Amino acid sequence: MKFYLATSTILCxxxxxxxxxxxxxxxxxxxxxxxxxxxFYGKNKLKVRGGxxxxxxxxxxxxxxxxxxxxxxxxxTEEEEMSLRVAGESKEAIGVGTEKKVFGSKEYAxxxxxxxxxxxxLGGPGxxxxxxxxxxxxxxxxxxxxLSVGDLLRNAEGSPHAELIESCLxxxxxxxxxxxxxxxxxxxxxxxxxxxxxxxxxxxxxFPRNFxxxxxxxxxxxxxxxxxxxxxxxxxxxxxxxxxxxxGKTSGRSDDNKESIKKRFVTFQQQTMPVVRxxxxxxxxxxxxxxxxxxxxxxxxxxxxxxxxxxxxxxxxANQKLINAIQTKNIDIYSQLVLTTTDVQKQFDENESLASxxxxxxxxxxxxxxxxxxxxxxxxxxxxxxxxxxxDDNKNTKSQFRETRVWSHEKNGWMCIHFVRKPxxxx
Length: 427
Fold this sequence. Notes:
Pfam families: ADK (PF00406), CaMKII_AD (PF08332). With 427 residues, the protein is an alpha/beta fold.
Protein backbone atom coordinates (compact mmCIF):
# COMPACT_ATOMS: atom_id res chain seq x y z
CA MET A 1 0.00 0.00 0.00
CA LYS A 2 1.47 3.33 -0.98
CA PHE A 3 2.28 5.86 1.71
CA TYR A 4 0.37 8.64 0.00
CA LEU A 5 -3.22 7.98 -1.06
CA ALA A 6 -4.55 11.07 -2.72
CA THR A 7 -8.21 10.54 -1.98
CA SER A 8 -10.47 12.70 0.09
CA THR A 9 -12.17 9.61 1.52
CA ILE A 10 -9.02 8.45 3.30
CA LEU A 11 -8.25 11.98 4.48
CA CYS A 12 -11.70 12.29 6.04
CA UNK A 13 -11.28 8.90 7.67
CA UNK A 14 -7.93 9.92 9.12
CA UNK A 15 -9.21 13.21 10.47
CA UNK A 16 -12.25 11.53 11.95
CA UNK A 17 -10.27 8.91 13.82
CA UNK A 18 -9.81 9.05 17.55
CA UNK A 19 -6.31 10.04 18.61
CA UNK A 20 -5.86 8.91 22.19
CA UNK A 21 -3.92 10.82 24.76
CA UNK A 22 -1.70 9.27 27.36
CA UNK A 23 0.01 12.05 29.32
CA UNK A 24 2.88 10.05 30.76
CA UNK A 25 4.21 13.16 32.48
CA UNK A 26 0.88 14.39 33.83
CA UNK A 27 2.03 14.16 37.44
CA UNK A 28 3.81 17.38 38.32
CA UNK A 29 5.83 15.75 41.10
CA UNK A 30 7.28 13.10 38.81
CA UNK A 31 9.98 15.40 37.44
CA UNK A 32 11.21 16.35 40.88
CA UNK A 33 11.22 12.72 41.95
CA UNK A 34 13.00 11.75 38.73
CA UNK A 35 15.74 14.28 39.41
CA UNK A 36 16.19 12.93 42.92
CA UNK A 37 16.49 9.39 41.57
CA UNK A 38 19.40 10.54 39.45
CA UNK A 39 21.06 11.91 42.58
CA PHE A 40 21.02 15.44 41.21
CA TYR A 41 20.12 17.34 44.35
CA GLY A 42 22.78 15.77 46.51
CA LYS A 43 25.77 15.88 44.19
CA ASN A 44 25.59 19.30 42.53
CA LYS A 45 27.55 22.15 44.08
CA LEU A 46 25.96 25.48 43.30
CA LYS A 47 27.61 28.84 43.50
CA VAL A 48 24.88 31.39 44.13
CA ARG A 49 25.23 34.88 42.71
CA GLY A 50 24.66 37.76 45.11
CA GLY A 51 25.37 36.04 48.42
CA UNK A 52 27.88 34.26 50.60
CA UNK A 53 27.07 30.69 49.55
CA UNK A 54 29.84 28.80 47.79
CA UNK A 55 30.61 25.08 47.74
CA UNK A 56 27.96 24.38 50.40
CA UNK A 57 29.38 26.83 52.94
CA UNK A 58 27.60 29.83 54.43
CA UNK A 59 28.83 32.59 56.70
CA UNK A 60 26.60 34.03 59.37
CA UNK A 61 26.11 37.45 57.82
CA UNK A 62 25.37 36.22 54.29
CA UNK A 63 23.60 38.90 52.29
CA UNK A 64 21.87 36.22 50.25
CA UNK A 65 19.29 35.70 52.99
CA UNK A 66 18.82 39.45 53.24
CA UNK A 67 18.33 39.84 49.50
CA UNK A 68 15.68 37.14 49.21
CA UNK A 69 13.80 37.93 52.41
CA UNK A 70 12.97 41.54 51.60
CA UNK A 71 10.06 42.36 49.29
CA UNK A 72 11.15 44.88 46.68
CA UNK A 73 8.94 47.59 45.30
CA UNK A 74 9.63 50.09 42.56
CA UNK A 75 8.08 53.29 41.29
CA UNK A 76 6.45 53.38 37.86
CA THR A 77 9.46 55.22 36.44
CA GLU A 78 11.94 52.74 37.90
CA GLU A 79 9.90 49.82 36.58
CA GLU A 80 9.72 51.36 33.11
CA GLU A 81 13.47 51.93 33.02
CA MET A 82 14.15 48.40 34.27
CA SER A 83 11.69 46.89 31.77
CA LEU A 84 13.24 48.70 28.83
CA ARG A 85 16.76 47.72 29.86
CA VAL A 86 15.97 44.05 30.47
CA ALA A 87 13.79 43.81 27.35
CA GLY A 88 16.65 45.23 25.29
CA GLU A 89 19.13 42.78 26.78
CA SER A 90 16.73 39.84 26.39
CA LYS A 91 15.49 40.69 22.89
CA GLU A 92 17.97 38.43 21.13
CA ALA A 93 19.06 36.09 23.90
CA ILE A 94 15.64 34.90 25.05
CA GLY A 95 14.91 33.41 21.64
CA VAL A 96 18.42 32.66 20.44
CA GLY A 97 18.45 30.83 17.13
CA THR A 98 14.77 31.56 16.56
CA GLU A 99 13.68 33.43 13.44
CA LYS A 100 10.32 34.93 12.57
CA LYS A 101 9.20 33.69 9.15
CA VAL A 102 6.02 33.65 7.07
CA PHE A 103 4.22 30.72 5.47
CA GLY A 104 1.68 32.25 3.12
CA SER A 105 0.29 35.01 5.31
CA LYS A 106 0.85 33.19 8.62
CA GLU A 107 3.80 34.15 10.78
CA TYR A 108 5.65 31.42 12.63
CA ALA A 109 8.78 31.02 14.72
CA UNK A 110 11.44 28.82 13.15
CA UNK A 111 13.29 27.19 16.06
CA UNK A 112 16.48 25.09 15.69
CA UNK A 113 15.82 21.40 16.37
CA UNK A 114 18.53 21.36 19.03
CA UNK A 115 16.72 23.83 21.32
CA UNK A 116 14.02 23.05 23.88
CA UNK A 117 10.73 24.83 23.15
CA UNK A 118 9.61 26.75 26.24
CA UNK A 119 6.41 28.53 27.26
CA UNK A 120 6.44 30.41 30.57
CA UNK A 121 3.33 29.85 32.71
CA LEU A 122 2.67 32.67 35.17
CA GLY A 123 -0.10 33.75 37.51
CA GLY A 124 -0.82 34.53 41.14
CA PRO A 125 -0.90 31.68 43.70
CA GLY A 126 -4.05 29.63 43.07
CA UNK A 127 -4.79 31.23 39.68
CA UNK A 128 -5.15 27.80 38.04
CA UNK A 129 -1.88 27.62 36.13
CA UNK A 130 -1.04 24.21 37.60
CA UNK A 131 -4.47 22.80 36.82
CA UNK A 132 -4.39 24.03 33.23
CA UNK A 133 -0.83 22.79 32.74
CA UNK A 134 -1.88 19.32 33.92
CA UNK A 135 -4.78 19.34 31.42
CA UNK A 136 -2.40 20.29 28.61
CA UNK A 137 -0.08 17.39 29.44
CA UNK A 138 -2.99 14.95 29.67
CA UNK A 139 -4.64 16.12 26.45
CA UNK A 140 -1.53 16.68 24.33
CA UNK A 141 0.00 13.23 24.76
CA UNK A 142 3.67 14.03 25.46
CA UNK A 143 3.77 16.84 22.93
CA UNK A 144 3.60 19.16 25.95
CA UNK A 145 5.50 18.54 29.20
CA UNK A 146 4.98 20.41 32.47
CA LEU A 147 7.75 21.52 34.80
CA SER A 148 6.71 23.42 37.91
CA VAL A 149 9.62 25.33 39.39
CA GLY A 150 7.66 25.46 42.64
CA ASP A 151 7.26 21.68 42.72
CA LEU A 152 10.94 21.16 41.96
CA LEU A 153 11.82 23.44 44.86
CA ARG A 154 9.27 21.92 47.25
CA ASN A 155 10.68 18.46 46.53
CA ALA A 156 14.32 19.47 46.95
CA GLU A 157 14.78 17.76 50.31
CA GLY A 158 18.15 16.35 49.26
CA SER A 159 19.50 19.67 48.05
CA PRO A 160 22.31 21.33 50.03
CA HIS A 161 20.16 24.46 49.85
CA ALA A 162 16.98 22.84 51.21
CA GLU A 163 16.89 25.09 54.30
CA LEU A 164 17.17 28.27 52.24
CA ILE A 165 14.53 27.03 49.79
CA GLU A 166 12.11 26.21 52.61
CA SER A 167 12.67 29.62 54.20
CA CYS A 168 11.85 31.38 50.93
CA LEU A 169 8.71 29.32 50.35
CA UNK A 170 7.31 29.91 53.83
CA UNK A 171 8.05 33.65 53.78
CA UNK A 172 6.63 34.07 50.28
CA UNK A 173 9.94 35.24 48.82
CA UNK A 174 11.77 34.12 45.69
CA UNK A 175 14.49 31.46 45.66
CA UNK A 176 17.84 32.57 44.11
CA UNK A 177 17.76 32.09 40.36
CA UNK A 178 20.83 29.86 40.12
CA UNK A 179 19.19 27.23 42.32
CA UNK A 180 15.89 27.30 40.42
CA UNK A 181 17.51 27.11 36.97
CA UNK A 182 19.87 24.29 37.91
CA UNK A 183 16.95 22.17 39.10
CA UNK A 184 14.93 23.12 36.03
CA UNK A 185 17.66 22.35 33.51
CA UNK A 186 18.25 18.89 34.94
CA UNK A 187 14.52 18.14 34.89
CA UNK A 188 14.26 19.22 31.23
CA UNK A 189 17.12 16.96 30.22
CA UNK A 190 15.58 13.97 32.01
CA UNK A 191 12.08 14.58 30.63
CA UNK A 192 13.19 15.08 27.01
CA UNK A 193 15.03 11.76 27.00
CA UNK A 194 11.89 9.92 28.08
CA UNK A 195 9.42 11.76 25.84
CA UNK A 196 8.09 9.90 22.80
CA UNK A 197 7.71 13.17 20.86
CA UNK A 198 10.70 14.98 19.42
CA UNK A 199 10.96 18.68 20.28
CA UNK A 200 8.17 18.76 22.91
CA UNK A 201 7.02 22.08 24.33
CA UNK A 202 7.98 22.61 27.98
CA UNK A 203 5.55 24.50 30.19
CA UNK A 204 7.80 26.21 32.73
CA UNK A 205 5.38 26.93 35.56
CA UNK A 206 6.11 29.82 37.93
CA PHE A 207 9.12 31.29 36.14
CA PRO A 208 10.44 33.97 35.66
CA ARG A 209 9.13 35.56 38.86
CA ASN A 210 11.34 38.66 38.95
CA PHE A 211 13.96 40.52 36.92
CA UNK A 212 16.75 38.48 38.49
CA UNK A 213 15.01 35.33 37.18
CA UNK A 214 14.71 36.82 33.70
CA UNK A 215 18.32 37.96 33.59
CA UNK A 216 19.43 34.60 34.95
CA UNK A 217 17.49 32.85 32.19
CA UNK A 218 19.12 34.89 29.43
CA UNK A 219 22.53 34.17 30.97
CA UNK A 220 22.17 30.45 31.67
CA UNK A 221 19.48 28.96 29.43
CA UNK A 222 19.59 30.51 25.97
CA UNK A 223 22.04 28.00 24.50
CA UNK A 224 19.59 25.17 25.17
CA UNK A 225 16.15 26.83 25.08
CA UNK A 226 14.02 29.04 22.86
CA UNK A 227 11.13 30.83 24.57
CA UNK A 228 7.99 31.00 22.42
CA UNK A 229 5.92 33.11 24.81
CA UNK A 230 3.94 33.05 28.04
CA UNK A 231 0.55 32.03 29.42
CA UNK A 232 -0.44 34.55 32.11
CA UNK A 233 -3.44 33.63 34.29
CA UNK A 234 -5.30 36.51 35.93
CA UNK A 235 -7.48 36.13 39.04
CA UNK A 236 -8.66 38.55 41.82
CA UNK A 237 -6.92 38.32 45.20
CA UNK A 238 -10.06 37.31 47.14
CA UNK A 239 -10.67 34.40 44.77
CA UNK A 240 -7.02 33.32 45.04
CA UNK A 241 -7.22 33.34 48.84
CA UNK A 242 -10.40 31.25 48.84
CA UNK A 243 -8.89 28.66 46.50
CA UNK A 244 -5.60 28.30 48.37
CA UNK A 245 -7.20 27.98 51.80
CA UNK A 246 -9.41 25.22 50.41
CA UNK A 247 -6.37 23.54 48.85
CA GLY A 248 -4.43 23.83 52.10
CA LYS A 249 -6.82 21.46 53.86
CA THR A 250 -5.37 18.53 51.90
CA SER A 251 -2.19 19.71 50.14
CA GLY A 252 0.18 19.49 53.09
CA ARG A 253 2.09 22.48 51.69
CA SER A 254 3.78 24.74 54.25
CA ASP A 255 2.89 27.87 52.25
CA ASP A 256 -0.85 27.17 51.90
CA ASN A 257 -1.90 29.48 54.74
CA LYS A 258 -3.44 32.95 54.92
CA GLU A 259 -0.26 34.77 55.93
CA SER A 260 1.84 33.20 53.16
CA ILE A 261 -0.92 33.81 50.60
CA LYS A 262 -0.89 37.56 51.16
CA LYS A 263 2.90 37.71 51.00
CA ARG A 264 2.98 35.65 47.82
CA PHE A 265 0.32 37.82 46.17
CA VAL A 266 2.24 41.01 47.03
CA THR A 267 5.42 39.43 45.68
CA PHE A 268 3.62 38.50 42.45
CA GLN A 269 2.24 42.00 41.94
CA GLN A 270 5.45 43.84 42.81
CA GLN A 271 8.02 41.54 41.22
CA THR A 272 6.41 39.23 38.65
CA MET A 273 3.94 41.53 36.88
CA PRO A 274 6.71 44.00 35.89
CA VAL A 275 8.48 41.03 34.29
CA VAL A 276 5.31 40.09 32.38
CA ARG A 277 5.08 43.63 31.05
CA UNK A 278 8.73 43.39 30.04
CA UNK A 279 8.12 40.14 28.15
CA UNK A 280 5.38 41.91 26.19
CA UNK A 281 7.98 44.35 24.86
CA UNK A 282 10.03 41.57 23.26
CA UNK A 283 8.75 41.23 19.66
CA UNK A 284 9.64 37.54 19.31
CA UNK A 285 7.42 36.51 22.24
CA UNK A 286 3.67 35.85 22.29
CA UNK A 287 2.34 36.81 25.75
CA UNK A 288 -1.30 35.79 26.27
CA UNK A 289 -3.43 36.87 29.24
CA UNK A 290 -6.04 34.30 30.27
CA UNK A 291 -8.79 34.90 32.83
CA UNK A 292 -8.58 32.34 35.62
CA UNK A 293 -12.13 33.14 36.75
CA UNK A 294 -14.82 30.68 35.71
CA UNK A 295 -15.03 26.92 35.38
CA UNK A 296 -11.98 24.83 34.57
CA UNK A 297 -13.43 24.10 31.13
CA UNK A 298 -14.00 27.79 30.38
CA UNK A 299 -10.38 28.58 31.19
CA UNK A 300 -9.28 25.48 29.27
CA UNK A 301 -10.87 26.69 26.03
CA UNK A 302 -8.62 29.76 25.90
CA UNK A 303 -5.60 27.80 27.16
CA UNK A 304 -5.96 25.19 24.43
CA UNK A 305 -6.43 27.82 21.73
CA UNK A 306 -3.23 29.60 22.77
CA UNK A 307 -1.18 26.41 23.08
CA UNK A 308 -2.21 25.40 19.56
CA UNK A 309 -0.74 28.67 18.33
CA UNK A 310 2.58 27.82 19.97
CA UNK A 311 2.61 24.29 18.53
CA UNK A 312 1.73 25.52 15.03
CA UNK A 313 5.18 27.12 14.80
CA UNK A 314 6.95 23.79 14.36
CA UNK A 315 4.25 22.41 12.05
CA UNK A 316 4.43 25.36 9.65
CA UNK A 317 8.23 25.31 9.78
CA ALA A 318 8.23 21.61 8.84
CA ASN A 319 5.73 22.19 6.02
CA GLN A 320 7.85 24.97 4.52
CA LYS A 321 11.01 22.88 4.85
CA LEU A 322 9.30 19.99 3.05
CA ILE A 323 8.16 22.20 0.16
CA ASN A 324 11.72 23.52 -0.20
CA ALA A 325 13.07 19.96 -0.24
CA ILE A 326 10.58 18.94 -2.94
CA GLN A 327 11.41 21.89 -5.16
CA THR A 328 15.16 21.36 -4.83
CA LYS A 329 14.83 17.55 -5.00
CA ASN A 330 16.68 17.18 -1.72
CA ILE A 331 15.94 13.54 -0.96
CA ASP A 332 17.83 13.54 2.35
CA ILE A 333 15.71 16.30 3.88
CA TYR A 334 12.58 14.88 2.25
CA SER A 335 13.17 11.51 3.94
CA GLN A 336 13.50 13.24 7.33
CA LEU A 337 10.09 14.88 7.00
CA VAL A 338 7.85 12.13 5.60
CA LEU A 339 7.02 8.58 6.57
CA THR A 340 8.99 6.83 3.83
CA THR A 341 9.09 3.38 2.26
CA THR A 342 12.29 1.44 1.59
CA ASP A 343 12.68 3.10 -1.82
CA VAL A 344 12.64 6.80 -0.96
CA GLN A 345 13.53 7.98 -4.47
CA LYS A 346 10.68 5.99 -6.02
CA GLN A 347 8.24 7.32 -3.44
CA PHE A 348 9.40 10.85 -4.13
CA ASP A 349 9.00 10.46 -7.90
CA GLU A 350 5.54 8.92 -7.62
CA ASN A 351 4.05 11.24 -5.03
CA GLU A 352 5.71 14.58 -5.65
CA SER A 353 5.95 14.62 -9.46
CA LEU A 354 3.23 17.26 -9.68
CA ALA A 355 5.23 19.68 -7.56
CA SER A 356 8.84 18.62 -8.14
CA UNK A 357 10.87 20.30 -10.86
CA UNK A 358 12.57 18.71 -13.84
CA UNK A 359 16.07 19.66 -14.89
CA UNK A 360 14.86 22.33 -17.30
CA UNK A 361 12.73 24.17 -14.75
CA UNK A 362 15.30 25.33 -12.22
CA UNK A 363 13.70 28.76 -11.83
CA UNK A 364 10.25 27.71 -10.67
CA UNK A 365 9.03 28.85 -7.25
CA UNK A 366 5.93 28.29 -5.12
CA UNK A 367 3.44 30.93 -4.07
CA UNK A 368 1.49 29.99 -0.91
CA UNK A 369 -1.79 31.61 0.17
CA UNK A 370 -5.04 30.97 2.08
CA UNK A 371 -3.30 28.92 4.77
CA UNK A 372 -5.40 27.04 7.32
CA UNK A 373 -4.02 24.93 10.17
CA UNK A 374 -5.79 22.67 12.64
CA UNK A 375 -3.95 21.17 15.62
CA UNK A 376 -5.36 17.93 17.02
CA UNK A 377 -4.35 17.36 20.67
CA UNK A 378 -0.81 18.49 20.00
CA UNK A 379 0.14 15.26 18.21
CA UNK A 380 -1.60 15.59 14.83
CA UNK A 381 -2.01 18.61 12.57
CA UNK A 382 -3.65 19.37 9.23
CA UNK A 383 -2.27 22.18 7.05
CA UNK A 384 -4.15 23.30 3.93
CA UNK A 385 -3.15 26.02 1.47
CA UNK A 386 -3.36 27.18 -2.14
CA UNK A 387 -0.09 26.53 -3.94
CA UNK A 388 0.82 28.05 -7.28
CA UNK A 389 3.95 27.06 -9.20
CA UNK A 390 5.40 30.04 -11.06
CA UNK A 391 8.09 30.20 -13.73
CA ASP A 392 10.38 32.93 -12.42
CA ASP A 393 11.78 33.64 -15.89
CA ASN A 394 8.52 34.61 -17.58
CA LYS A 395 6.18 34.78 -14.52
CA ASN A 396 3.81 32.27 -16.10
CA THR A 397 1.79 29.93 -13.88
CA LYS A 398 2.89 26.33 -14.34
CA SER A 399 0.32 24.70 -12.06
CA GLN A 400 -2.03 25.59 -9.21
CA PHE A 401 -3.77 23.42 -6.65
CA ARG A 402 -5.12 23.18 -3.11
CA GLU A 403 -2.70 21.08 -1.08
CA THR A 404 -3.50 19.49 2.29
CA ARG A 405 -0.90 17.74 4.41
CA VAL A 406 -1.44 15.72 7.58
CA TRP A 407 1.35 15.79 10.15
CA SER A 408 2.13 13.57 13.13
CA HIS A 409 4.39 14.43 16.07
CA GLU A 410 6.86 11.55 16.20
CA LYS A 411 10.07 10.81 18.11
CA ASN A 412 12.11 12.57 15.41
CA GLY A 413 9.78 15.57 15.30
CA TRP A 414 6.86 16.45 13.01
CA MET A 415 6.47 14.12 10.02
CA CYS A 416 4.07 14.27 7.08
CA ILE A 417 1.99 11.07 6.94
CA HIS A 418 -0.52 11.90 4.20
CA PHE A 419 -1.39 14.51 1.57
CA VAL A 420 -4.15 15.42 -0.88
CA ARG A 421 -4.02 17.78 -3.87
CA LYS A 422 -6.98 19.17 -5.77
CA PRO A 423 -6.75 21.46 -8.82
CA UNK A 424 -7.68 25.08 -8.22
CA UNK A 425 -10.49 26.31 -10.43
CA UNK A 426 -9.67 29.78 -11.72
CA UNK A 427 -12.77 31.94 -12.08
